[in-house]
Design brief:
Oligomer: single chain
Distance between the termini: 34 Å
Strand content: under 5%
Shape: elongated
Structural class: mainly alpha
Number of helices: 4
Radius of gyration: 18 Å
Largest sheet: none
């Protein structure tokens, strides 16, 4: 992918990631910490999580078109890097205790759920755009 495509995808996914992060934090806290209280610093950290969740997208940067195998490998690498970065931040901010396996598992599952949701929403948007463009091309070049 070209840098322009990556930056556009990152800008589009940022808001999905932040929304997903808020929803997953709500679910995470409801399950493990129902008395949790969030501060203004936590809201800023949620936004930083959105940015940190977007930065690994740069792994898809390529000077040429990636084939399916290359895209699959980069997707796996992307998920691993994303989980590592977000778990690191969550531990640094005392959102997750690495000694508590349940917290780590729930955190990883919520990140994967958000990742999956962002993936499908993005694919749906791309598909709608492709259909719209194809329809316009058919209208324009129909004999």
């Amino acid at each position: 992918m070209r840098i322009e495509e990556i930056l556009k995808a990152m800008a589009n996914s940022f808001f999905l990631i932040v929304t997903g992060t808020v929803c997953s934090m709500f679910a995470f806290c409801m399950i493990l910490h129902p008395n949790a209280v969030f501060t203004l610093a936590d809201i800023g950290r949620i936004l930083l999580m959105g940015i940190a969740g977007d930065l690994p997208y740069l792994l898809f940067l390529s000077g040429r078109e990636l084939n399916k195998k290359q895209m699959f490998v980069r997707t796996l690498l992307h998920v691993f890097v994303l989980l590592t970065v977000l778990l690191y931040l969550a531990v640094q901010w005392d959102w997750v205790n690495l000694q508590n396996t349940e917290e780590v598992v729930v955190f990883v599952l919520t990140v994967l759920l958000v990742y999956t949701a962002v993936f499908f929403v993005t694919k749906y948007r791309d598909r709608k755009l492709t259909d719209k463009l194809n329809e316009r091309l058919k209208e324009r070049y129909r004999p």
